[in-house]
Amino acid sequence: MRVSTGQLFDRNIQSIMDNQSGLSNIQQQLATGKKLLRPSDDPVGATKVVRLTEELAQLKQYQRNNDLLRNSLEEQEAVLRNINNAVSRARTLAIQAGNGVYSDEDRRAISIEVAQIRDEVFDLMNAQNANGEYIFAGFQSNSQAFAFNPSASGKKYTFDGDTGNNEIQVSNTVSLGATTSGFEIFENVLARLDAPITASTGVTSASVKVTQQDKFDQFHNNNYDAITAANNQFRATILAGNQVQITNVASGAVLATQDFQSGQPFSFNGLSFTIEGAVGNTVDFTLSTPEKKNVAETLNDLVNVLTNNFPGQQNFDDGLADALVGMDNALVAIQNETSSIGGRLNVAESIYEANLDIEIANKKSLSTIQDVDYAEASAEFSKQETALNAALATFPQISNLSLFNYI
Questions:
Q1: Of 18, 165, 378, 393, which has the fewest beta carbons less than 10 angstroms from its beta carbon?
Q2: At 256, phi and psi to the nearest 5?
Q3: pLDDT-derived band of residue 202, with 50, 70 and 90 as boundaries?
Q4: pTM summary value
């Protein structure tokens, strides 16, 4: 095989350029710390680098979301804790006011503190976060959650937000509620259920009051018909043999038959009846329609109960019972939401740690693909440098080979 002088020059120059290129690549790897300098170096590895980089950026955003979520939940928890303490204090004052030795002046003095608690709770229900958004207004976070209208004939404290709950995504598959609408926590709270007397036949007098609220609430829940009002009518009928029978007026179903003595109280599913009458006399009572009342309205009603002069003790007792049950139900709603917040905080913390583990694994995979091994790269650099020096040293000798040198 004949090798021309031109081929000798071309091959030696190409060899030198290849060695220079290889040495330059190793220098760039050592300088940047990356062994993938361009996609063509490793097309499959470059694709994995792009995917892992995107996942790491997504995880970083999820962790930021998680921080925002936990800050929001912790802020709500603090607000609810203060409301819970305030309402608990108001409940204690209401029980004190029910003490028979307290005078009207004593009750009015208690009402002053209850009024201050009412205003405090109302302000907390309209709490704002660091961005000036109303925490409990739902999606309408730029407007006040609850409004107060002192001239309103009915409810003076009304909910002006909506039922939306803002959620924040903290992983590919999990979104957690960052806020809860004040409608669920404060507005959607049952007022005291009752069973007022609606009609009577032949009796001298009749009264009914709730003495065991939990037991009556269970009876109400099991028997109240929201569709057919007639099914909510019940009748107590005095029978011969000193007995009284409780029936459903619409269906005629007998619910109970028990001992009876005129003028003496008897109990039925948490209700205490006192009826003066004879055999055949009847007293009709109705299950009241369930009503919802927010905690600020309940506290306002309590203030009115403590400041008004009622014509009879029964009216005061009923008003006080309404307030106590309303506060109890409000406290349950607040405590349930506090538990929900605690659960979401635990989930957020668990997901945060899981995301950290995934982030570490992805960074390790990314480093394996694109980060340079300095020991290996340094050895390769020395190898390429030696090869280049050899090529540069041998090229002059090879270029001088010619038959003319031997003539």
A1: 393
A2: -165, 150
A3: very high
A4: 0.77
What are the structural domain ranges in the chain?
A: 56-191+296-356, 197-289
What pLDDT digit, counting tens, does each position of 41-92 carry?
A: 566 666 776 687 888 899 999 999 999 999 999 999 999 999 999 999 999 9
CA distance 343 to 345: 5
Note the helical H segments in 240-373: 295-307, 313-370
Q: Which of 54-58, 296-300, 368-372 is predicted with the least confidence, judged by mean pLDDT?
A: 368-372
* Helix/strand/coil for 260: coil
Which is the CATH superfamily of the domain at 56-191+296-356? f41 fragment of flagellin, N-terminal domain (1.20.1330.10)
Q: Which two tokens stand for residue 67?
A: 């921080």
What interhelical angle do 104-125 and 43-97 show, nearest 10?
Answer: 170
Task: Tell me the residue type at 333.
Answer: A
Residue 192 near residue 217 (C-beta atoms within 8 A): no
* Residues in contact with 15: Cβ distance below 8 Å, sequence separation at least 6, in sequence order: 391
CB 155 within 8 A of CB 297: yes
| Confidence label for 319 from pLDDT (cuts 50, 70 and 90) | confident
Q: How far apart are CA 211 and CA 268, in angstroms?
A: 10
From the list 115, 141, 185, the residue with the least C-alpha distance to 329 is: 185
Which of helix, strand or coil describes residue 102? coil
pLDDT at 399 (0 to 100): 58
Question: What token pair was written down for 29?
Answer: 């790897």
Q: Tokens 């403590």 map to which residue?
A: 306
Q: From the options 1.20.58, 3.30.70, 1.20.120, 2.60.40, give the CATH code of 197-289.
A: 2.60.40
Query: What confidence tens digit (pLDDT) does each residue in 88-142 have?
Result: 999 999 999 888 788 888 888 999 999 999 999 999 999 999 889 999 999 999 9
- 156/304 Cα distance (integer angstroms): 12
